[in-house]
């Protein structure tokens, strides 16, 4: 969502200081229901092929999300997923976007597509920073229980707070 909103803001001349993407889904074409098994012929992202069967991010769950987001008709899903507003890596113009920060998780099937989008933004001349959090799954940012939370989740919160402070107030 953040990726697409950054394009809309640019096109409407709305100044945005930071375009923050946290474990972003920027290309879910490999999640089409007609795809039963991921391989290099239908999915360019190694992380999706490696982690599509892990309990915290199986391909079947991604396909379930798409069903409820885009509807049950396979042909309509395919048409919608070829629209850059649902698949930001297909955007016709990636230039002049706000500074971007992309956060990914090592054991996330969406890791490589998020990092790919970050590289596309950088190649188009945008200022981009990226951080991959090692050893954690897609939803690691939510694992911040005061007594049993993941250290990486707390680090993410601290890093993000520092980034937002520096972006909006210039300290850091």
Automatic annotation (TrEMBL):
User: Which GO molecular function entries does the Swiss-Prot or TrEMBL record give?
Assistant: hydrolase activity
SUPFAM superfamilies, per the entry: alpha/beta-Hydrolases
- Superkingdom: Eukaryota
InterPro entries according to UniProt: AB_hydrolase_3, AB_hydrolase_fold
Alpha/beta hydrolase fold-3 domain location, by residue?
A: 1-141
Q: What is this protein called?
A: Arylesterase
- Natural source organism: Colletotrichum shisoi
Q: What is the lineage of its organism?
A: Eukaryota, Fungi, Dikarya, Ascomycota, Pezizomycotina
